[in-house]
Structure of Methylene-tetrahydrofolate reductase C-terminal-like domain-containing protein:
Amino acid sequence: MYSMRRWSAKHANKLHHLYSGVESTLYKAAPLLEKIGYDKLEKPFMAVEKVTKGLLFDSQSCGQCTLGSTGMSCPMNCPKTIRNGPCGGVRPNGKCEVKPDMDCVWVVAWEGTQNMPPKEQAIHIVQPALDSRKKGTSAWLREVRLKRQEKAKANASQ
Ligand code: SF4
């Protein structure tokens, strides 16, 4: 919901904590999730993510969430879908050059980052190119699977 974007950036710190809490709870529940099967969980998880993240961040469900690095502002709302900072056309009033009625998502991202400690750090992380094959899939489940794989790799190399 567009009207929620600035609110979410203003409350980026609390929302980031909440978001991280959800991810960490899911990570703890990973053995159970694996037992049920990620494929079976994909649809219900995506439905929950679509509603909650759609309401709070106008999330476009790209499946590769960067909210924690972008001040809780979804970069997929940028008409050019730029994931690493603003284009050169941001208007002097902070509005988007393509959609003059919309705040540039990167202006909102910067404001959100100022509300998240450590200030100005995560926004400097260079995001990989968007993989459009992941659109419409659960970013939460992907994160859990990724962390589990990393842990298994680390255990195997010990
Ligand atoms: S002004 Fe901001 S939101 Fe608009 S196209 Fe450029 S980077 Fe994207």
